[in-house]
Amino acid sequence: MAQVLYTVNIIEVYKVAPPHGSAREISLPLTFFDLLWLKLPPVQYLYFFKIPTPTPDLKTSFFLSVLPRLKHSLSLTLHNFLPLAGNIIWPQSSHKPLVKYIEGDVVSLTVGVSEADFNYLSGNNLCQAVECHPLIPKLAVSRDRAAVFAVQVTLFPNCGFCIGIATHHALLDGRSFNSFIKAWSHVCKLDEQVSSLPLELKPFYDRSVMKYPSHLDEFYSKIYSDEPNNRSFMPWELQVPPNSFRGVFELTGANIEKLRQLVEQEQPIHMSSFSIACAYTWVCLVKAEEISEKKVILIFARDCRFRLEPPIPTTYIGNCLRATVAIAETKEIMGKEGFVVAVKAISEAIKAGLENGAINGAENEILSLVALQSEGKLYNIAGSNRFEFHKTDFGWGKPIKVDMASIDRTDGGIVVLDSRNGDGGVQIGIVSKKHHLEVFSSLFANGIQCV
After folding, report:
1. Residue range 49-74: mean pLDDT, rounded
2. Annotated active-site residue in 72, 133, 303, 393
3. Active site includes 72?
4. Which of 114, 247, 359, 394 has its CA 20 to 30 A from that of 451?
5. For this structure, is 393 an active site residue?
């Protein structure tokens, strides 16, 4: 097992409750979209913030000013996001789990200090995948209940701080998580009360707007059972593959446009920045890893909020995702026209997903995804550049780096986020073997230069 060469000194673990006057209790039933993620390990995010002009008394000012402001604004924001302070439970009288908040429930906020190299951890250099783990909070999970949200704030004296977050995917997909982060940072930066949340940041919880066959809830509630009546919330024990490294790469807005023009010369198809970035990354990674399987498969999620009938608000808190699967012949991806082949495969997969709708085939989705493991080499995309994580500002400037640490438990894990440069570019995070990432880095850079 890889060794982490630094430590985080835990100073305190706070219990942050919603403010006085919040609702005493709220229950939120899980939908089949949520139940799909019930047994997965937590999703883990890292936000690195650099202090522009560090001073010798940064540590003192952090504990007297920054930390209290983060804690207070978190409490205020929870007033509108009470389920995040609650727990996922499964009452005996219910055929499916639910999220329940009762007065007294809290969010765990761990505070630590580390002398580790902040610039190294927040940079784009290759590093061991586990090196970021000390910056991530533990999410409390037992057989009979699971916390939804936990935070860790780690101070790097004279440099900056990191906000690490762990979430339970059974309540929060990427859009839901981003809605909360945008609300929290809004309250923290402007130091305003919860009533001042703008309309686009106010969460929407009403499950009655989700129209789908009721048997899907029961189907997904049972699909994870190892034995009759098993209602445990213990997640699958997915381990970081040995000798895994993490790399972060950038495609600028100009790079994206060059790649778009390259495809338009061959295929007159619509291409988003996300599709272009995924296709280019896919091709470079397949070549770097010298894949021997006959087929390569790229899996990413599509947001169905707009595809339901009727559509549901973008501020809906919960999961509303279906899998999109792009498949290509390995030899074609590795060939001269590999990038065009990849774009076409992704485009066709997106088109097929739109035609199928949000509900069709839901009963078969898990079995279909499992079956793919025997069909070729899998790559899994998490995140989206549309969420603009790098624009998050709690009042101390935008983060110099945002990453999703939890992709390191997935073989073929890739995360796509917006670029920190704010130029319309895309940031790609990859976990693989070190020598594969070194080859990938060369292919990635040289391929852009040759466009």
Report:
1. 88
2. 393
3. no
4. 247
5. yes
